Amino acid sequence: MINPRQHIERTLETFPAFFLVSMFFCVLIEYGPEIAKKDIAAAIMEPLGTSAVILLFIACTAVTGFTLLILGSVDSRSTSKKVSAVRILVERPAAFVVDLIGPMFAVVSAVIIACLLFGYWSHVPGLLCALFYLFVFAALNIGLVALTHASFLGKIDAKVAGGRLAGIFLILSSMAIFYWMLPLRGG
């Protein structure tokens, strides 16, 4: 029998790969495919031109996430020894990146939501908008992963049903938020 803590841990083990791939597509949606065609040196000189470099970094990290998803990842919890942050960065870069930027998304999302509530959407920089889309897609991905794990846990009991219910809620809520945001993109 699997307990809720194990269910959450299994979900989070698979989550980084889905999350990093969604980051790539969200930035691509926000800035358009032409951002990849620009010369990186010239793009850095533009306002918000660092988005080209960010896109390149995210693309590389997304590939790392796919690799971890396909080949598996190093589970530092299998040993009783403490694992340094440097070792995690080397062995599980995707998980390290997600742990590093995770708290940032909560702050950025709070800023975006506050701007929406007070009618200042046009004053929100495009990069913050992109980060908010990443947050929405992340919620969608967590829901999908939770559903996937819940469907393979074996016996259907209250804990599994709870995992499926959480997955459905996250998927529907994130889709609703994203649909609500689409008309506001243009300011």
How far is the N terminus from the C terminus? Answer: 50 Å
Summed up, the helix count is 7
Helix content: over 70%
Q: How many whole angstroms does the radius of gyration measure?
A: 18 Å
Order of helices and strands: HHHHHHH
Which structural category fits the helices and strands? Answer: mainly alpha
Please count the beta strands (DSSP E, at least 2 residues each).
0
Q: In percent, how much strand structure appears in the residues?
A: under 5%
Tell me the domain tally: 1
**What number is the mean pLDDT?**
54
Query: What ranges have pLDDT less than 50 throughout 5 or more consecutive residues?
Result: 60-81
- Give the overall shape, derived from the CA principal axes: globular
Largest sheet: none
Notes on the protein architecture:
The protein starts with a helix and ends in a 6-residue tail after the last helix. The chain is built from seven helices and no strands. The chain is mainly alpha-helical. Mean pLDDT is 54; it is low at 60-81.
Q: How would you summarize the topology of this molecule?
A:
Layout: H1 4-31, H2 40-44, H3 50-71, H4 85-91, H5 93-117, H6 126-151, H7 158-181
Structural descriptors:
187 residues; 0% strand; mainly alpha; single chain
What's the gist of this structure?
The protein has 187 residues and is mostly helical.
